[in-house]
Specification:
Elements (H helix, E strand, L loop, with lengths): L1 H13 L10 H4 L7 H6 L6 E2 L29 E6 L3 E2 L3 E9 L4 E3 L5 E3 L14 E3 L39 E7 L2 E7 L2 E7 L6 E13 L2 E15 L4 E6 L10 E3 L3 E8 L11 E6 L6 E4 L3 E5 L4 E15 L49 E16 L2 E12 L8 E12 L4 E7 L6 E8 L7 E9 L2 E10 L4 E10 L7 H4 L10 H15 L16 H12 L11 H4 L3 E2 L1
Parallel strand pairs: 3-12, 14-20, 25-28
Antiparallel strand pairs: 1-9, 2-4, 4-10, 5-6, 6-7, 8-9, 8-11, 11-12, 13-15, 15-18, 16-17, 16-19, 19-20, 21-22, 22-25, 23-24, 23-26, 26-27
Length: about 575
Amino acid sequence: MESLCGVLVFLLLAAGLPLQAAKRFRDVLGHEQYPDHMRENNQLRGWSSDENEWDEQLYPVWRRGEGRWKDSWEGGRVQAALTSDSPALVGSNITFVVNLVFPRCQKEDANGNIVYERNCRSDLELASDPYVYNWTTGADDEDWEDNTSQGQHLRFPDGKPFPRPHGRKKWNFVYVFHTLGQYFQKLGQCSARVSINTVNLTVGPQVMEVIVFRRHGRAYIPISKVKDVYVITDQIPIFVTMYQKNDRNSSDETFLRDLPIFFDVLIHDPSHFLNYSAISYKWNFGDNTGLFVSNNHTLNHTYVLNGTFNFNLTVQTAVPGPCPSPTPSPSSSTSPSPASSPSPTLSTPSPSLMPTGYKSMELSDISNENCRINRYGYFRATITIVDGILEVNIIQVADVPIPTLQPDNSLMDFIVTCKGATPTEACTIISDPTCQIAQNRVCSPVAVDELCLLSVRRAFNGSGTYCVNFTLGDDASLALTSALISIPGKDLGSPLRTVNGVLISIGCLAMFVTMVTILLYKKHKTYKPIGNCTRNVVKGKGLSVFLSHAKAPFSRGDREKDPLLQDKPWML
């Protein structure tokens, strides 16, 4: 009996039969196990089953944590970064990109070789050998000329031969992608890209795994493994940006009353799957203004009451899909498909949701050969509406006389008004005429009454043209206005500098008033709007106020007639 067992062992060895089962792709590429029905219903075009055998002699398998990983690359470890444009709508394409991150001071050149970066390291030996791996010198062009054993290493882990290279550009890395019980092999340089169609894929999160090998003589060794989660969805991936002028922080979903909010819908469709689909947008702002339906992805809406509102948006479109099978007889029954996509139908949007004049998708618009499936996307947000500063205006600019000892400086008084909520802080930025280079910035708290009248005094260094920005803010809002201010050169002998020291007789009052009015009018600093900011220029009233200041020492009794002087502004 013992001799019989020995003969059997000898025959097995002579026949070359392995005593240990060969590794398969699923044993090498991770621990994700997929049942048979998922493999059958998630077929990827051009991909192979991970039940195939893996060539362990040409592509050795290292377990995670083994010491051999430390020596897999000269100068350190290579990291692989895997990204995708997930989430993907069922039926669209999803793209995966793997980028290799080499150790410090290493990069890939135009020929695919790995070289040291210049001026990155000071090692003296780099001057003689700039290569980390010079794969061009050891090119295998001659191995493609015959089918001898010399070219047997030019194949993938499943034994399929490499595609013939074009020119001198070499692909020195082998990428193996694995998902849903299937794998895809590809040659590449420091990055690789793979796209798959999701028409038959199961809705939900899935895992993509990638292992990368590099050339090592006439074999390959692993240098990095990476995996990432991607999502297949039957809902249109959408995101809504909300913007409002004067809103201090748009990310907190708190906005201002009586100012329009601009809504912009962004559809995540990197593969352009929906390019030729009609898309409708149904807006419900939650303030009892009704349902708005349009085919435009932007819309603005103004809330006129304070409070909290539930904003709801529904996006609807019809996409190409497989035609439904014939309706089974009542006596027959079918089991549901493992995929959670809705059944293809020729349904149209509900007429009750369509405004007058909206062209819905009729059955006659759809070819009998191409069925379409309705897809929907949803966005919800809770919006809070509060009071805020709605508008800021400069209504007056006046020159302030200063001592003759400071001829190069100018002081200006700005009268600023606002509408809406009462500001709690004010900022002034003085810049060059292009409003790009800031020269001075001053911010301070303010206490303004309900009339919101503010006087701001600012200094200017020398003559010239300046851009002045005024910003008034509170906790929820930030409103601004801008102006260009022209500061002319100062004349030391100008009556403007000495007007306060002149004694004037009653008989010369009329002439004095006229002269001061003309001088002040010339000194009045003109400005013009910058950009799209809201600004008002008060022409007649500004001159009247200047004249009132000139007549002030002689007509104290008439000052209460000027509204600006009655409402004494806050001085900043």
